[in-house]
Write a structure and sequence with these properties.
This is GntR family transcriptional regulator. It holds the Pfam family FCD. The chain is mostly helical. The chain is about 65% helix and about 5% strand. A 3-stranded antiparallel sheet has the order 1-3-2. Strand 2 and strand 3 form a beta hairpin.
């Protein structure tokens, strides 16, 4: 398994973007977000080992925020302790995946219903535009942008529901599954369902939005099983 390789961030970028430790966010959360993003993007695979000392050196921070970040990620289910190996990126079983999708279905269906009632017109316009830009990125062959927009689309639904508890509950579930959907090389169905969901929310049709959200979770579950377990029989 590969070790985690993270770009050094000692010097400030030329565009003035804050480096680790310079943003108004606890350092442990900045480190957590960076590691989580690499998992989501597939740069870290299930089973990859995360060495606290190595991470601290690469990020230019002490081991304390790295240790705290890894503990946060354990709570979110992204990493786990394994005897004689240490901390690794979580390896999900079929049952783990099915459990996640059962919870995700309940939350996303409710989120779609609430979005129909609570989203502003500007928010709905932004969601619709996001779905359209993802399709354009697909047509342009820009799969990285398409994947980013697809992930952002999912993250936007609980925000449009204007329910903070729903959003914070869904965040770690969505994050653990974004990386799987990035590996889907036939995104047409996902894109079509995103457009259908955006249209249902725009029409304020809660029943239709809930139905599309439920079908979309089932589509995602099938893709997840194909990507993670097809080779295992």
């Amino acid at each position: 398994m590969t070790q985690l390789s993270v770009p050094r961030r000692h010097a400030a970028p030329a565009d003035g973007t804050p480096t680790l430790g310079e943003r108004h966010q606890p350092l442990r959360e900045q480190v957590r977000d960076l590691i989580r993003e690499r998992v989501v993007r597939g740069e870290l695979a299930p089973g990859d080992r995360l060495v606290e000392r190595t991470l601290a050196e690469e990020l230019g921070v002490s081991r304390v925020p790295v240790r705290e970040a890894l503990n946060l990620l354990k709570g979110e289910g992204f990493v786990q302790d394994v005897p004689r190996r240490g901390v690794i990126v979580t390896m999900l079983s079929r049952d783990d995946v099915d459990d996640l999708f059962e919870v995700r279905e309940a939350l996303e269906v409710q989120g779609a219903r609430l979005a129909c009632r609570r989203a502003t017109e500007d928010e709905i316009a932004g969601l619709t535009d996001m779905a359209a830009r993802a399709e354009q990125a697909r047509d342009d062959g820009d799969l990285e942008t398409m994947a980013d927009l697809n992930a952002a689309f999912h993250d936007a639904i609980p925000l449009l529901a204007h329910n903070r508890t729903l959003a914070t509950t869904l965040e770690p579930l969505e994050g653990r599954l974004h990386w799987v959907l990035r590996q889907n090389h036939s995104p047409e169905l996902l894109l079509r369902e995103h457009s259908e969901l955006a249209a249902a929310i725009a029409d304020r049709d809660a029943d239709r939005a809930a139905d599309v959200a439920r079908r979309h979770v089932e589509t995602s579950r099938a893709i997840c099983h194909e990507v993670m377990f097809a080779a295992k029989g």
